[in-house]
Structure formats: C-alpha cells, structure tokens
Amino acid sequence: MEIIELIPYGEENAVKRKWLVRRCIENGLVDADSKDPDREMRRLIHKAREKYVILNNSDSRGYYRPTKKEYLNAKRYCRQEENRERSLKKSRKPVLRFLKQCEIEFQDRETGQTNFFDLIDGGG
Question: What is the pTM of this model?
C-alpha cells in the first residue's frame, strides 16, 4: 500500500493529518514507535507529490486529491508554494553572503583554496 491510496479525491472528502497518521500506522506505512510519526507521514506525502497532485490548502481542511472542478484550488495551492519558495530564497541570501565572506577570509592566498579546518576551528 502507498499513502496515495489513503488520500481521497475532492476537497469535501479531505482527511485530517491526525487521521492520516493513524491510517499510515495501521497500514504499516509509518512506525508507531518512531520518534515523530507525523513527520514520517509528511515525508511520505512529500515523496508522493513527486508523482501525484495532493493538496492541503492553508485553511487546514486536510489532504485531498483535486478533481477537475477544483482547478482553482490547485492554482491557489501552486501560488502558495511559489510564495513559500520566494520567501525561503530571500531568507537564505544573508546566509549565503556570510558563507562567501568566511570562504574569502580563509582562502589560501597562494593556492586559492579554502582551508575548511580554519573555518571550523577559528572562525569565531
């Protein structure tokens, strides 16, 4: 069994996360004794999204597979994810600048190579 089999078509049939975690445990998709079964279930959904359309709009109605009449929901979900991507990219910029500064600071003047041991040991 795959997690996609537990996710119904239609927003009106959406399933909540807690329900989905329980069903994943019951069907052996997630280990009940794991540290965080909810996170494991979300990983399964993330992987399934590589092949299937699975929506969970920000209104928390749950997970579902859209029908053609729910085209606008899919469009809205897509915009939501694109906004999330842009936000992550923006928040990563200062970290990338910091890394670049560190690499330049610890770059060997003769070879042009970065001494990563210096970065780790004395980069305070």
Answer: 0.74
